[in-house]
Amino acid sequence: MKTIQDILNQKDFSKEDLINLLKINTQENLDLLKESANNLMLESVGSNVYLRGLIEFSNYCVNDCYYCGIRKSNAEVHRYLLSKKEILDLAIWAAEKGYGSIVLQSGERADENFVSFVEECIVEIKENTKSENLPNGLGITLSIGELSLNQYERLFKAGAHRYLLRIETTNSDLFKQIHPETQSFERRLESLNCIKTTGYQLGTGVMIGLPNQTYEDLANDLLFFKEIDIDMLGMGPYIVHLSTPMKIYKDYYFENQKEIYALALKMVATARLLLKDVNIASTTALQAMYPWGREEGLLFGANVVMPNITPNEFRKEYLLYNNKPCLEDNKGDCFTCTISRIESVGRKTVLNKWGDSQHFTNKLRQNA
Ligand code: 5AD
Ligand code: FES
After folding, report:
1. Nearest ligand 1 atom to alpha carbon 241
2. Distance 45 CA to ligand 2 centre (A)
3. CA dist., res. 243 & res. 232, Å (int)
4. pLDDT digits 0-9 by tens, 342-355
5. pTM of the model
6. What per-residue confidence (pLDDT) applies to 325?
7. Model confidence over 126-141: pLDDT tens digits?
8. 31-64: per-residue pLDDT in tens?
9. CA geometry: angle at 276 spanning 134 and 19, to 5°?
10. Which atom of ligand 1 approaches the CA of 322 most closely?
11. From the CA of 325, how far away is ligand 2's center (Å)?
């Protein structure tokens, strides 16, 4: 039988290899995995960490995902939509601070009013954030869900150039268990395809540790990322939200928290080994489970961090899961905090750069 070191010495991995990496359960093997992922990261994307200022600009949502705190049926949530001026001011503040990129994230809505609102925001952000440091303005990533091809194209033309849409799980049965019938796995796949054909850098991801999710499911998720040739990856542990239908799994969640957290880190490392030069985010959900979770994510091969720049009064209305960090009044200063946390694990933050996916750049070069 192959040892973990044998697997790590390979250049490519079978599904079985991936499963064995995800099943690692000794400190010794975990250290080997972490070291390999770190080395591969240094070789393929370097040690720099890129920032994206996250603006959670609206929590209205037409969807009803069984795990998510801002699902439309959660009547406890106060719904908000920041104004164009508020969004623009946040973007300008971010650009001046040194964030080279922002992520505009919201609950899902595909109505014309909403899409043209986002379109106008993008145009104005682009116009108003150009400077010597950022000659092309802020880099803009969108994370606003499933839209039509035409809508994706409009927002791309307006100036957004990256898009995040998580597949959540590639096991279509499991997808069905955590979403109502109105949300289809096939449509999610089509949306990913549309995002790609439009020309965006494509990001996706899954939740790790979902009830009934197997190691094989996660290995399939990784192979799917490779197959659809993603540029960016954002994955995090599943975290229970007690005002959602999935609260019925709270015992499972609280009893397995430690394993779920460790599995999320192993997924990050394994994804780095398999996907090599993509951007991988160390997600807030890791930090929600463990105070140094995001730093650990960096140590397991991640190279992007998304500090929250949403004004404090709205952050608490954007609770996707329990225990969301950075809700206290920190005067919006996740910036200084994040940079020192990144330094604490020996890494350097790059300011005033878009920090595009090396994978995307390499592809462009190959096709030129
Ligand atoms: N636990 C972990 N991640 C969650 N998300 C939503 N709800 C939860 C939860 N309870 C993630 C989903 C979604 C992203 C914006 O947040 O993966 O795509
Ligand atoms: Fe938000 Fe530290 S990252 S306060």
Report:
1. 10
2. 25
3. 30
4. 999 999 999 999 99
5. 0.97
6. 86
7. 999 999 999 999 999 9
8. 999 999 999 999 999 999 999 999 999 999 999 9
9. 140
10. 10
11. 7
Over residues 253-307, the pLDDT tens digits come to: 999 999 999 999 999 999 999 999 999 999 999 999 999 999 999 999 999 999 9
Provide the CATH number for the domain formed by 13-363 in this structure: 3.20.20.70
- Residue 29 tokens read as 């093997």
**Distance from the alpha carbon of residue 337 to the mean position of ligand 2, in angstroms:** 5
pLDDT at position 368: 79
Residues 207 and 255: beta-carbon distance below 8 Å: no
C-alpha 229 to ligand 2 mean position (Å): 32
Closest ligand 2 atom number to CA of residue 308: 1
Angle, in degrees to the nearest 10, between helices 84-97 and 112-128? 30
* Distance separating alpha carbons of residues 359 and 278, to the nearest angstrom: 5
Domain boundaries, the chain: 13-363
Rounded Cα distance, 330 and 342, in Å: 18
Nearest CA to ligand 2 atom 4: 334
Question: Ligand 2 atom closest to Cα of 326?
Answer: 1
Separation in Å, CA 248 to CA 136, 191, 243, 254: 48, 30, 10, 11
Please report which confidence band the pLDDT of residue 331 belongs to, taking 50, 70 and 90 as the band edges.
low
Give ligand 2 pocket residues (Cβ under 6 A).
307, 326, 330, 334, 337-338
CB within 6 Å of ligand 1 — which residues? 67-68, 166, 168, 207, 236, 238-239, 241, 285, 320-321
